[in-house]
Design goal:
Length: 110
Amino acid sequence: MLTVSSGAAVAVQGLLARPGVPAGSCLRIQMAAGRNRLRVLLVSSPCPGDLVFDIDGRPALLVAAEVAERVGDQILMVRRSEAGRMQFVLDATAEGSDEQCEPRDLVVAR
């Protein structure tokens, strides 16, 4: 089963605490339409079959069922890209560690 690192949990909390994000919103990881890539969206509620991660006692991160099946036992972490932006990554080995990030560094589709 997918594990969420402490750095990724902090990033999710920060994104959901941004001004203008409706109370009760969650981040949902799903497959990007027509691509073999993942996409992170801001949503108001889980879809049937979503894997739900509670952070600080409330649903905060949702993983689409088809994604959960594909990623298996990987770890969701936060890393800095070559372009200097923070991004969520999946890591099967947990080598390295999460990087400190400011939520404004992360991009979420709405």
